[in-house]
Amino acid sequence: MTLQQIIDDSRRIVFFGGAGVSTESGIPDFRGVDGLYHQKYDFPPETILSHSFFMKRPEEFYRFYREKMLPLEAEPNAAHRKLAELEAAGRLSAVVTQNIDGLHQKAGSRRVYELHGSIWRNRCMRCGRAYTPEFIRDDPHPVPKCACGGIVKPDVVLYEEGLDDDVVSGAVHAIRRADTLIVAGTSLTVYPAAGLLYDFRGRHLVLINQDATPADDMAELVIREKVGEVLSGIRVTPVEGEDDRA
Ligand code: NAD
Ligand code: ZN
Q: Which pTM was predicted?
């Protein structure tokens, strides 16, 4: 079946995406050709974005974070927009994302499980006060400081930190009930997120990724193209008849 036929045959699609979903919005991924792994830093991104590094060298963490992890002006691309459209048409039940950029919500998606948190939520580690990402970006201190003196930390899951239980169980539940799982723009190397794929029991597993992934052999359809270009070619027709998603 083609991707169009699979989508026309589905009404509980779950889209499981990674950094490659946002490269067409101008945000670099980690492991793709233009990814951060191929740029020169004193430490690999995985080290800088780890909990122990954050605790030991917060100034260096925020230097990298402010420079690379705050794409506040980025706009959703054709992939984000098509997914919002599929949800509104009753064909897609959830987006599960490893991204922290908030672009799915910006495009209008409503049910989004953000496995690794979001740059749009930030809190003081001492008093819990909420801050905008613009505050993190613009605060003149090398490490952004709350009025109380505590450090303002993004609600982003760093390496060595655990995922939020409610987010994970929501994502697992959606994937278990999905008739189609579209996995896109992810190298499937970051665990436990990548393991969610194995909860899928539905009919159609589709993989859209420019590079090969460890799950290619499992998929009914593997498309090695840009996810925004692929999805922009999809026609969305509303589900006819009774809504059986309940
Ligand atoms: P990754 O960098 O490991 O892999 C990205 C994959 O996407 C690569 O295999 C690449 O070939 C593919 N790709 C790139 N552009 C594509 C496109 N337009 N169409 C199809 N495929 C494309 O990303 P990952 O698996 O998500 O793991 C990286 C981790 O870093 C995640 O945990 C994520 O939270 C974080 N991250 C997030 C962002 C973001 O929020 N936008 C950006 C960078 C990294
Ligand atoms: Zn505070």
A: 0.94
